[in-house]
Write a structure and sequence with these properties.
The complex is a heteropentamer of chains A (616), B (238), C (124), D (493) and E (304).
Chain A lengths: L2 H19 L4 H22 L5 E6 L2 E6 L2 H24 L6 H20 L3 H19 L7 H29 L4 H7 L5 H18 L8 H8 L2 H26 L6 H25 L3 H22 L2 H32 L15 H15 L5 H15 L3 H25 L16 H19 L2 H13 L14 E3 L5 E3 L1 H25 L1 E2 L26 H12 L2 H20 L6 H23 L1
Helix pairs in contact in A: 1-2, 1-4, 2-3, 2-4, 3-4, 3-10, 3-13, 3-17, 3-18, 4-5, 4-10, 5-6, 6-8, 6-9, 8-10, 9-12, 10-12, 10-13, 11-12, 11-16, 12-13, 12-15, 12-16, 13-14, 13-15, 13-17, 13-18, 14-16, 14-17, 15-17
Chain B lengths: L1 H23 L13 H13 L4 H9 L1 H21 L18 H23 L8 H18 L7 H26 L21 H24 L8
Helix pairs in contact in B: 2-3, 3-4, 4-7, 4-8, 5-6, 5-8, 6-8, 7-8
Chain C lengths: L2 H28 L3 H22 L24 H32 L13
Helix pairs in contact in C: 1-2, 2-3
Classes of the chains: A mainly alpha (616), B mainly alpha (238), C mainly alpha (124), D mainly alpha (493), E mainly alpha (304).
């Protein structure tokens, strides 16, 4: 049997078995769950080779699933992060309600994402896309009735996106008579201008929703923050990357092929930039870790979108590199939040503080992820950001680079807030009982954060598959041999070797840590955080020394005018207006039978008049 | 306002309908030129194939007998639906209520006329294929007989069970004859019996059989309708 | 019968039928009493039936029954088809009216009124 | 010849007349016999359908008179497909209602199953007949059974719903007769094929008038806006399975009639555009009305109307793809909406108002029913990989092939609305707390089996659409080929 | 192998130079301020005395490991920045790790330090530390804008992201960039005011209000490390400005003159103004300095 098909059968069968296994035994269910995520993932990498394909014909439509390098690149995110999150999830979900639903949707999400990556035709792409949407939607509302509106908001936006995509798909079909992606790519340059514009616009709308691009991002904070954290790491880490995946394909294979593509690139790049700024500003404002990370995801996706939209090879590399890195660090960070939530029961910065000594490993993972997120060398975020700036500057996006830079500077604010809010600050008595999260939760986080470190220091490891992926999309590799040494070429023809500098940083850092910090740490004695010089006085036992309310008050006084305009409000008003309209519409059905009869007569009369008018 | 709207709408509707039919014309063949309408075939075949003088009957029972089967079913269904709509749990069923008793003229007259009405009805449906009238008309006449009795005598009652049996048997006859036609002649309602001598009682093949069944059925059903509605306990006359 | 009289009849029969229908419709659409609505509907039926039967009439035609005198002249008969159809229509109309009346009884039982404006529990 | 299409009418009628007699002998038979009849008819229709797909349509002549003279039944791939679908659903509805507690204990069971059988027979007759007046008769059979079924429950407002239905139904029959008579007065025939051959002889004024009367009359049954005032009330007040029967059977037959009239009888091309326009209006208004509903069944009713609008739009394309899409939607809608009505009835079983709020948290108590409801909701929204997706895709592809972009956009926009209101219910079922006073009611075994069958079909069609599409393609090409239809009918032996 | 040894020795030498110069400048600042305020003030070498004192102290307590990581972070940041910025043109004793794109690298590595320090300060649990940190980070979002604008203007005008390339441009053309790209220079200098966190942008430390700001819980060697890192950092910034806008320096004397002149700008400006609140400071940076930054970019785009 075809290995491509096998993987899906395993996923699907596993999902169903897991769903019902809960009736028999919870442990069995967990094991089945793990197996049905890990085994197909294992098979994916061992049994599938590039170019392997499966073709079916359904309803006269040719469906083609096959693996190419670009899909393989994203499969690293999906299956890698998925596997980690699955291990994490088993421990995280212990003792929760509706385990079957959770596991089922988790597996389906992973399956659908794998499917998206394998789909070489628009229909199966769309099918998997929708499975992904509804399985993630079911996760969004997993936590009960408070989140109904959030879930529906998510699904409505997703549906708008998906349906836009569907419209593009049928457009393609009406022109090419086929649903295969390669047919679209071949036919695209010779299409009419109208189609050349509409198809990418509609496709991009669909992808932009999942990638939480600016005017369509409003679902993201709610949805990310309300799903179970074990899933959110996949949700934000991998699922949003499917939007990126689609956007990349659209940009590389369609938009860049036509002269009008420049407009798309500019508009989307700017939208990405604005997304980054808005996401960052709102992230800073949040007092809840989940929300903060959710907005941060929006912002980070903004960078990625910008990178992809710019469309130079370096920019694409940057975007894709950031995409992988974002999957890693945001996946880890959501796991961290999950761990904190599991151990303390809350994720609010104003409630939790000073967990560093209670949960050191979690803190370690959080620290590395935050450093990567902030884009500070030597962790992975920097390489991506650096390439992004290089590509922006060399492709003459001067103002955009300022916007992006501002947002990434402002990102330090929430980065610090995250670390400080949970782990630093006063060690409150209330949390003295808190222990480190279970090993099954800690290990994935630590593995992921070490991965970030490795990829940041040796970016070549990741850059070469990205390069392969881009080649699969039709990019000719202009500097093939440079990858081994992580040399990067910018738009002005300058060669850059990043790696040595990263080694130096690590070396110097280790020097100071070993010779200064650790030595000093050993020679000193730990005192509690109450034992401080508070303006020269010794604070009383009950004095509140936790600083967490209005954390960045001065900053918000400065940016207030920007924050006042909310896109959410616009959508809310729109929604309310529509509901009022619908309410009015349904009043047509007055409930009086005679009125209905009058409608009938009126219909006949109008039709008669109209018909006679047509005859004359 | 609503009234005015309705009047305007109805005026327009009436104008169009009326002008359409005025245009079609009254009293002369109105078919478009160059076609031969089915009615000519019906009239010719009535005599030729069916050996029946009454063209309407031949259409109702044979040419378009399927419609009639449906029609009978509609009636049957109406009774069923009536029973369902006015269904009451057993303990809710009360006595039939009457505003005032019929006078003795009515009661004794009814008793006298009743057999005559039944007879007339039977005559009408038995001779349905020969003369004007038929199963429906005869059935209705019989039902009026029962109506008269029901109105005259407070205590007069019709057995639901009997009505139901008659109704069912008649219906089964109709459908059964049709199916026999399918068996014998290859098509449903096929006239598989010999058509006999024109203008005699036993002619026309299955037509009289069906019409008799229809007569019984209509009689039973209409009586059933009347009886069911009459049994409804009025609330204005406690 | 002379021509002018006949043309009057022409308009008269169809006109009557249509007017009957309109009256019935008016009753069904405007009158508040359920009973009147049902009566209106059956008036519509009557008008319609009249219309159908009138459609089958030919000037000077006889009933479509072959008495020996007419056996050789089938073209003198009126159109039997509308008559057959109207028979069906009448019966069906009867059935519907019966059900409608039964429903009126039920509604009266349930709501205690026959005013259709007060029977609006189901709406929107 | 495997069997005769006339048996679809004759057998149930015979059974209908027999049932009262049998009921006197053995009470249970009033429930069993209709089921047996439907099962037999289903077997018959399946075997006939196979025959028809292989050898071409069967024209059944009644009373031995060739088509222009007598009445005929046409069992073509198109009508045969619909008949099979209706009978299948009818059997499921029967099986579902077989032990529907309320039906058995409180109400006159005899009449329920009788009326149900006649409802199905009438719809089947509407679909099979090749004669416009005969169609009228079957429409009346269907409607009278529908009035009865609508007002079946006594303690609710069902009589009100039924009265509205009867008011509009009477108007429908009036207009239908008017249309028939106008055609008869001109062409002297009542046979569809015969009318179709002669239609070009008719004056356009008459054509338009009769078409409008036809559409009005059939549109009332087919729930076209603004003729569908009865529909939400009737769906909401009728017993749950009957709602399914309305959505799955009656409306399908009515739509079939509309389509037959427009595609075969008349040769007015403007009628296609009219279908599209009226379909859009129906769909938009119904779906927007559905989103604000508080009552489950009303919501389902509006959704059903909306789907019919979509079907009309698809038919309005006038292309083979359009018909195929329309048939596919009809099929899916029949299956899915039935499942929704079935499972919804149990979710809100002990609620008299059937408010959406009443289904909250039922997932815990009725896990399988809730799962099936969710499955149905997902499928009808058109989420892959469930059945509804393929039909939605088909309609969009058909529209795209006709370059009707605005319509595609509109259909998709309406889909979003649809999605919202279905999700609200699914959310409630799964993620809300149960209302205090709501007692969950476990479905009976036969109801469960029926729902599982429907769910299985949804999944089957979703994962393997080829299981039905071949049939649909044949059926759709059958409808497109008008001349072949005429030739088949008029040359019947 | 020998070159590696040279490099390491050179790096150490550079570090020492930076440390000394930074300390002296710090002392001079105190002196100048005092003189302007009509006080005597400490001697210019006072900072060395303080540093010696701190270095010889032994810490007894800590609040957790992060507190000790903080100084390491800031030191790494300072040293790395120093390594990247060329101190003298073409001088093998002061090698640097110059590479293409180091300007962007520098932007990031320069914020690495403050963030690390902020983490260290955070663990102490002293609310004043956190307050100071939030102010500092907020302020950073302010001055980074004109600063980046100025850099971007330079980068696009000369098509390079390398400091050395920019220096070469000045050597070749013979004009300093502060004259050929005046707006960029103005914007950068205004940003520098914020970078040095002298008045009016000294709200971060805000000695009077917050006891002593983020560093309040550090003492002894750690304070020494932070202090020396700060000094090195000051030197790096000044050198960077010299390299970018004033044509670099061929020898140490020129370097000292140029940096000192540059250093006087924030020092003197701080004497004439009073402290801004954080939000005012941020808005100030987003006002005129950013405007000049924009002009610089426009100039770079349209007058290449």
């Amino acid at each position: 049997m075809n290995p491509v098909l096998n993987i899906f059968i395993l996923f699907l069968g596993g999902a169903i078995l897991t769903y019902f296994a809960g009736r028999i035994n919870k442990v069995l269910q967990s094991l089945l769950f793990l197996a049905s995520v890990l085994v197909p993932a294992f098979l994916f990498y061992t049994q599938l080779s590039i170019g392997q394909s499966a073709t079916f014909s359904v309803d006269g439509i040719t469906l083609n699933w096959s693996l190419n390098y670009f899909g393989w690149l994203f499969s690293l995110i999906v299956l890698g992060l998925g596997a980690m999150a699955a291990i994490y999830a088993v421990s995280y979900m212990k003792g929760k309600q509706r385990l079957g639903t959770f596991y089922f949707n988790f597996i389906l999400s992973i399956m659908s994402m794998t499917g998206i990556l394998l789909s070489q035709d628009l229909i199966s792409f769309f099918i998997f896309w929708e499975i992904m949407t509804w399985s993630s939607y079911l996760m969004t509302i997993y936590n009960g009735n408070k989140v109904q509106s959030i879930g529906i908001k998510y699904f409505v936006f997703s549906a708008i996106g998906a349906y836009a995509m569907l419209m593009a798909i049928v457009m393609v079909h009406s022109i090419t008579g086929s649903f295969l992606i390669k047919d679209l790519i071949n036919a695209y340059p010779t299409m009419q201008l109208g189609m050349q514009i509409w198809i990418p616009v509609l496709l991009l709308t669909g992808f932009a929703v999942k990638a939480a691009m600016m005017p369509l991002h409003v679902w993201a904070p709610g949805a990310y923050s309300n799903s179970p954290m074990a899933y959110t790491s996949v949700f934000s880490g991998a699922l949003s990357k499917m939007g990126v995946y689609g956007m990349t394909i659209v940009f590389v294979t369609l938009i860049n092929k036509i002269p009008q593509g420049i407009w798309f690139r500019e508009v989307i790049a700017w939208m990405g930039g604005i997304t980054a700024v808005i996401g960052t500003l709102w992230a800073i404002k949040q007092d809840d870790a989940k929300k903060l990370l959710a907005y941060s995801s929006v912002a980070q996706l903004g960078y990625i979108i910008t990178g992809i939209a710019i469309g130079t090879e370096l920019a694409l590399l940057a975007g894709l590199f950031l995409a992988v890195m974002h999957a890693l660090f945001k996946g880890t960070l959501f796991m961290v939040v999950g761990a904190v939530e599991k151990q303390t029961g809350t994720t609010n910065f104003t409630e939790v503080s000073g967990l560093i000594r209670k949960m050191p490993w979690t803190f370690f993972a959080a620290l590395l992820s935050i450093i990567a997120l902030a884009g500070i060398p030597p962790l992975g975020g920097f390489v991506g950001k650096w390439m992004l700036y290089e590509s922006l500057i060399t492709s003459n996006h001067y103002l955009l680079v300022i916007v992006i830079f501002f947002s990434s500077t402002a990102a330090f604010l929430y980065c610090y807030k995250f670390l400080f809010g949970f782990f630093l600050g006063q060690e409150e008595k209330e949390w003295s009982h808190v222990k480190e999260a279970p090993a099954a939760m800690v290990v994935p986080m630590v593995i992921l954060s070490l991965l970030m470190f490795v990829l940041g220091t040796f970016p070549g490891i990741l850059l070469s598959p990205i390069n392969n992926g881009l080649q699969a999309l039709g990019y000719t590799d202009s500097y093939k041999n440079l990858w081994e040494t992580s040399v990067i070429l910018n738009g002005w023809g300058n060669h850059v070797v990043l790696q040595p500098i990263l080694y130096y940083i690590i070396a110097i850092f280790l020097f100071f840590v070993v010779f200064l910090t650790l030595k000093g740490y050993k020679n000193t004695r730990y005192v509690t955080t109450k034992d401080i010089s508070s303006s020269g006085e010794i604070p009383k036992e009950d004095e509140n020394l936790t600083f967490s309310e209005n954390f960045y008050q001065p900053f918000f006084r400065a940016v207030e005018p920007v924050m006042r305009r909310q896109i959410d409000k616009f959508y809310k008003n729109l929604g309310e207006g529509l509901e009022a309209l619908f309410e009015f519409m349904r009043r047509i059905y007055t409930g009086n039978g005679q009125t209905y009869a009058i409608y009938v007569i009126a219909f006949v009369v109008i039709m008669l008049l109209f018909g006679n008018y047509l005859l004359k | 306002m609503k009234k005015l709207l309705v009047i305007v709408l109805l005026a327009v509707l009436g104008f169009y309908t009326a002008s359409t039919f005025f245009d079609i014309g009254f009293g002369s063949p109105h078919f478009v030129k160059g076609i031969d309408p089915v009615k000519d075939i019906y009239i010719n075949q009535t005599v030729k194939s069916l050996n029946v003088p009454n063209a309407v009957t031949s259409i109702v029972v044979n040419f378009r007998g399927f419609d009639t089967l449906g029609e009978v079913t509609v009636l049957f269904l109406a009774v069923t639906v009536l029973g369902s709509v006015l269904y009451k749990k057993r303990h809710e069923v009360g006595e039939r209520s009457v505003l005032f008793s019929a006078s003795s003229v009515v009661t004794s007259g009814a008793k006298l006329i009743f057999p005559a009405i039944i007879l007339l009805g039977a005559y009408v449906f038995i001779h349905g294929h020969l003369s004007p009238g038929g199963g429906f008309q005869g059935g209705v006449i019989i039902a009026t007989g029962f109506l008269l009795m029901l109105l005259s005598y407070e205590s007069y009652s019709v057995s639901h069970k009997a009505l139901s049996i008659v109704e069912s048997l008649a219906g089964i006859t109709f459908a059964g004859v049709g199916l026999l036609g399918l068996l014998h002649g290859g098509s449903f309602l096929h006239n598989f019996l010999p058509t006999g001598v024109m203008n005699s009682l036993f002619s026309g093949g299955i037509i009289p059989i069906i019409y008799i069944a229809v007569g019984f059925k209509v009689a039973a059903e209409l009586t059933g309708v009347i009886y069911t509605v009459l049994n409804e306990k009025g609330e204005g006359n406690e | 019968m002379n021509e002018s009289l006949f043309s009057l009849l022409n308009y008269g029969v169809y006109g009557t039928a249509v007017i009957l229908m309109l009256i019935g419709l008016y009753g069904a659409l405007i009158k508040k009493s359920l009973l009147k609505i049902v009566i209106g509907l059956s008036v519509v039926d009557s008008g319609l039936n009249l219309l159908i039967v009138a459609l089958g009439y030919y000037k000077g035609g006889t009933a479509p029954i072959f008495s020996p005198a007419y056996l050789a002249h089938p073209q003198l008969m009126v159109d039997p088809v509308p008559q057959a159809l109207v028979l069906t229509a009448i019966v069906i109309g009867f059935g519907v009216t019966a059900v409608a009346l039964a429903l009126v009884i039920r509604l009266y039982r349930h709501h205690g009124t026959l005013n259709i404006d007060q029977i609006k529990n189901l709406k929107w | 010849m495997v069997g005769s299409p006339v048996l679809f009418i004759a057998i149930p009628l015979l059974a209908a007349f027999l049932i009262p007699l049998l009921g006197m002998i053995w009470k249970e038979s009033v429930r069993i016999v209709p089921g047996l009849v439907l099962a037999y008819l289903l077997v018959l229709s399946v075997s006939l359908l196979q025959h028809v797909l292989a050898f071409g349509p069967i024209i059944e002549i009644i009373a031995g008179w060739k088509p222009p003279i007598g009445i005929n039944l046409v069992f073509s791939p198109f009508s045969g497909f619909l008949v099979t679908l209706m009978l299948f659903l009818g059997l499921l509805v029967w099986a579902y209602s077989y032990r529907f507690k309320r039906n058995v204990e409180y109400e006159p069971a005899l009449k329920y199953f009788l009326m149900l059988m006649m409802l199905i027979t009438g719809s089947v007759g509407m679909t099979l007949t090749g004669d416009i007046f005969n169609m009228f008769v079957f429409i009346e059979i269907t409607s009278i059974s529908a009035y009865g079924l609508t007002s079946y429950y006594k303690e609710r407002n069902s009589a009100e719903a039924s009265f509205k239905y009867i008011l509009l139904g009477s108007l429908a029959s009036t207009f239908l007769l008017l249309a028939i008579m106008i055609i008869y007065s001109q062409l002297g025939t009542l046979n569809m094929a015969d009318i179709a051959t002669k239609m070009h002889l008719m004056k356009p004024g008459y054509k338009v008038a009769s078409l409008i009367f036809f559409i009005t009359a059939l549109g009332i049954e087919a729930e076209i806006f603004p003729l569908n005032g009865w529909a939400p009330d009737a769906y909401a007040e009728a017993p749950g399975p009957v709602g399914a029967a309305f959505a799955g059977i009656v409306v399908k037959a009515a739509v079939y009639a509309v389509i037959r009239v427009i595609y075969t009888l008349f040769d007015l091309p403007g009628a296609y555009q009219f279908l599209i326009v009226i379909g859009i209006i129906t769909m938009v208004i119904a779906e927007t009305a559905a989103i604000r509903q508080e009552k489950l069944k009303r919501m389902l009713a509006y959704s059903s109307i909306g789907q019919m609008g979509l079907v009309l739009i698809a038919f309005g394309f006038g292309t083979k793809e359009g018909i195929y899409a329309a048939l596919f939607i009809m099929f899916n809608h029949a299956i899915i909406k039935s499942l929704l009505f079935f499972s919804g009835s149990y979710l809100a079983y002990n609620s008299t108002e059937k408010n959406i709020a009443d289904v909250s948290g039922m997932a815990k108590h009725l896990p399988l029913t809730s799962l099936l409801f969710a499955l149905g909701a997902f499928a009808i929204i058109g989420l892959p990989p469930f059945a509804g997706f393929w039909s939605k895709l088909a309609v969009l592809t058909a529209a795209a092939d006709s370059s009707l972009w605005l319509i595609i956009a509109l259909v998709l926009a309406v889909s979003v609305v649809e999605l919202v209101y279905y999700l609200r219910v699914v959310n409630r079922v799964y993620f809300f707390k149960k209302e205090e006073d709501m007692e969950p009611q476990k479905p009976t075994v036969n109801a469960m089996i029926v729902m599982l069958i429907l769910g299985a079909i949804i999944l089957l069609v979703g994962f393997y659409p080829d299981s039905v599409t071949g049939l649909l393609h044949k059926a759709s090409s059958d409808l497109m080929d008008k001349s072949q239809y005429i030739q088949h009918v008029l040359s019947a032996r | 192998m020998e070159s590696v040894l040279y490099n390491i020795l050179g790096a150490v030498a550079t570090f020492l130079l930076a440390f000394v110069v930074g300390m002296i400048y710090g002392g001079l600042n105190r002196k100048i301020t005092a003189r302007v305020q009509n006080r005597k003030g400490p001697p210019f070498y006072q900072n060395f005395i303080d540093a010696m004192k701190l270095a010889s102290k032994r810490s007894a307590i800590h609040h957790g490991i992060m507190q000790h990581f903080g100084p390491a972070f800031i030191m790494v940041s300072s040293v790395m920045s120093l390594m990247v910025v060329p101190v003298l043109t073409h001088n093998q004793w002061f090698p640097n790790l110059n590479f293409h794109g180091d300007l962007i690298f520098l932007l990031y590595i320069m914020v690495f330090g403050p963030l690390g320090m902020a983490l260290g300060a955070g663990q102490t649990g002293n609310p004043n530390s956190a307050i100071g940190v939030t102010r500092g980070l907020s302020l950073m979002t302010g001055f980074e804008i004109p600063w980046v604008m100025a850099l971007v203007a330079l980068m696009i005008q000369y098509h390079t992201t390398s400091i050395v390339d920019l220096m070469n441009v000045q050597i070749q053309s013979g004009t300093w960039l502060m004259f050929s790209s005046p707006f960029a220079f103005i914007a950068a200098v205004m940003a520098m005011l914020g970078m040095f966190r002298y008045s009016p942008f000294d709200i971060v430390g805000a000695p009077a209000e917050l006891a002593s700001g983020p560093i309040s819980e550090n003492g002894g060697k750690y304070l020494f490390v932070m202090m020396s890192a700060g000094s090195v950092f000051a030197f790096v910034k000044l050198t960077l400005y010299v390299d970018l806008f004033m044509g670099g320096a061929d020898n140490l004397v020129i370097l000292l003159v140029k940096t000192f002149v540059l250093y006087l700008i924030p020092v003197l400006y701080s004497l004439t103004t009073v402290r801004y609140r954080t939000e005012h400071a941020i808005r100030w940076f987003w006002g005129w300095p950013s405007f000049f930054g924009l002009l610089a970019i426009l100039q770079a785009v349209f007058f290449k």
